[in-house]
Design goal:
Blueprint lengths: L6 H17 L3 H17 L3 H17 L3 H18 L2 H13 L4 H18 L4 H15 L3 H18 L2 H17 L3 H14 L10 H14 L3 H17 L3 H17 L3 H17 L9 H15 L6 H18 L9
């Protein structure tokens, strides 16, 4: 592309390379490639492409611990796509904006807009992604059966479109909904398929650690704490390799719970402290994994271990769990529930 002086092809190729690098954990390289794609699109006055690449860059930032900057970038991409009149790119950006949005009414508005745009232009590949976001929305509201229905619908569409990445992350949504609803057989089957798919090319993709985390939590719930330690430890290391602080902190928190179940209090304290440190350092309130769980588990471990004489650390962990939980539900209102 450079030899031919084709800047748009160069930008497109850089975006493809960034997706590959992101999938295998080379997030800094992926960020640099996406940034270059955005710059080329801006210079060549290719507004729709600029919005597309900005969306990818914003989502990468949101996933790697900078949710605020990522959300701002995706909102900018939406504005550029609207100015350019590109319904397809706006639909793509709206979906990613909904992922990064904690305000339930805004989240609902963005996903409804994405579905409306995709319907208007008959853009089939977007529907499985919309249905996956709908599944996550209903899961967060505790409507588990509806979440499972949307996730299964998403997977059917993604299989028809051969969208392997969409199948992977929707399997995680389905498994998490099933596990929360107590349908452990469906959850385990879905996490195991995710594990298989995400390693099918001989190298693990960014969705792989989610299967380890889910299987580890199931093992812990079913009383197999030793196996849970292996799965959750592997999950934490894998999330770290993929520069995913949200997943790493959640995995470490559940690993500390597994150590607690084995009465390994020193390891439980050390591991829960690592989880808390990651949460305090990174902006990780958005996403699918609940950050309040890590603080709640830390409180339980500190309370059980009775390691701080005045209970100050335990009460701080409990207060952090409360603050994070209330931040996540503060914007729930009638508009977002209809």
């Amino acid at each position: 592309a450079r030899d031919r002086g084709d800047q748009r092809l160069e930008a497109s190729t850089l975006r493809t390379l960034s997706r590959i690098n992101k999938a295998v954990g080379c997030t800094e390289t992926a960020r640099e490639q996406l940034q270059h794609s955005v710059e080329i699109a801006n210079v060549t006055v290719a507004a729709a492409l600029e919005a597309w690449y900005l969306t990818d860059l914003g989502w990468l930032l949101a996933q790697t611990g900078d949710a605020g900057a990522g959300k701002q970038m995706i909102d900018r991409a939406i504005a550029i796509a609207q100015d350019a009149g590109s319904l397809r790119v706006e639909a793509y950006a709206q979906i990613h904006a909904s992922f990064a949005e904690n305000d339930i009414a805004l989240h609902r508005r963005k996903i409804s807009r994405a579905r409306e745009l995709a319907t208007a232009i008959h853009y089939r590949p977007i529907f499985p992604q919309v249905n996956n976001v709908e599944a996550g929305y209903h899961l967060n509201l505790g409507l588990y059966e509806r979440a499972i229905d949307f996730a299964e619908k998403s997977i059917v569409g993604a299989r028809q479109n051969q969208q392997v990445e969409v199948i992977e992350y929707t399997l995680e949504t389905l498994a998490r909904a099933a596990a929360t609803a107590g349908i452990n057989a469906l959850a385990r089957r879905s996490f195991e398929e995710l594990a298989e798919l995400s390693q099918a090319q001989g190298i693990a993709t960014q969705n792989y650690p989610y299967s380890l985390l889910g299987l580890g939590k199931l093992d812990l719930e079913e009383g197999n704490a030793i196996e849970a330690v292996t799965q959750l430890g592997d999950a934490a290391r894998s999330f770290h390799d993929f520069s995913d602080p949200h997943g790493e902190a959640n995995s470490l928190a559940w690993l500390s719970a597994a150590y607690l179940a084995l009465q390994e209090l020193d390891l439980a304290l050390e591991t829960s402290a690592r989880a808390a440190a990651i949460l305090e350092e990174a902006d990780v309130d958005t996403g699918d994994l609940a950050p309040q769980e890590a603080w709640w588990l830390r409180y339980q471990i500190l309370d059980t271990a009775d390691s701080d004489a005045d209970g100050r650390d335990a009460w701080r962990a409990l207060e952090m769990a409360r603050l994070v939980m209330f931040r996540l539900v503060a914007n729930i209102r009638d508009e977002g529930l209809r």
